[in-house]
Design goal:
Helices cover 38% and strands 19% of the residues.
Length: 278
């Protein structure tokens, strides 16, 4: 059964957000509550490398209906850097893809442990059992916070700058390629969109990713200038892929969920493509 709603053109949509199952602040159920309170009509909870955490379809939150899409943000390696792939499903996330994501989350715990070996610092908390079991996805943010808690950094900024940023090479990079991520997602019936590329990244890699089968690019994002948004929109039309959009909300900063949203009419191509997969 499809989870896709019939939407008013001005319906408010956010296709990118996170919960405390990865690097967000709040539990999935609380994220849903905040989405309802803020008047969002369609959301996708896109925790990193993790199976869907909320029931799919319409959920009534204090009298407001929020349509939940099953989705995930998968990390993959391409060229010489880590890129992120948003994967959306028209209904339930298939069981084989759920298992695939669980294995990815387990790999994150392995990478965390190898990072601890590389850092060789005392008193840093190891991965918990939930992350080892793939029930939550731990990230560089969790490692940075553990370094702060152990007294090796005064704050997260310092932890990233000194220990766990990409430039330090202390955290092993992901082994999954973007090519394999796209292929697995599409084989499972998902719609794939490249998350938050910069313009330079889009110019360098979008043609290659389209060749690999990516179906969309995240065009609508907060804190992105109109020039960048227009250019990314042109890229999507040139390559005949859909535009997606979302806040990439984590809940740690002053911005509230719902402050940023995209009108459904701006995402018509996305919803049509997703419907075609149903």
């Amino acid at each position: 059964m499809t989870a896709l709603p019939t939407l008013h053109p001005n319906a408010r949509v956010d296709l990118h957000m996170h919960s405390d199952r990865s690097d967000g602040r709040y539990a999935p159920e609380h994220v849903l509550k905040l989405a309802g309170e803020s008047g969002l009509d369609v959301i996708a909870l896109t925790d990193h490398d993790l199976p869907a955490q909320l029931p799919v379809g319409p959920q009534v939150v204090e009298g407001h209906t929020v349509h939940v899409l099953h989705a995930v943000e998968v990390s993959g390696w391409h060229g010489d850097q880590e890129l992120h792939l948003l994967v959306y499903f028209p209904a339930e996330m298939p069981e084989d893809f759920r298992l695939f994501c669980t294995e990815l989350a387990k790999h994150r715990a392995d990478r965390y442990e190898r990072a601890l070996e590389n850092l060789a610092l005392e008193g840093v908390t190891p991965p918990d059992q939930a992350s080892r079991d793939g029930e939550r996805a731990i990230t560089r943010l969790h490692l940075a916070q553990a370094l702060v808690d152990a007294g090796h950094a005064e704050n997260l900024r310092q932890a990233f700058g000194k220990w766990v940023g990409n430039h330090t090479a202390k955290v092993p990079h992901v082994t999954l390629s973007m090519a394999d991520a796209i292929a697995r997602a599409r084989a499972a019936g998902g719609l794939t969109s490249w998350a938050h590329p910069s313009l330079d990244q889009a110019r360098a890699y979008l043609p290659e990713l389209v060749e690999l089968g990516v179906q969309g690019v995240e065009v609508f994002r907060p804190r992105v200038g109109s020039k960048t948004r227009r250019e990314l929109g042109r890229f999507s039309r040139r390559h005949k892929i859909v535009a997606t959009g979302g806040s990439d909300w984590h809940g740690w900063y002053r911005h509230e969920l719902g402050e940023f949203s995209v009108q459904a009419q701006q995402l018509g191509g996305f919803f049509q493509a997703l419907q075609a997969l149903a």
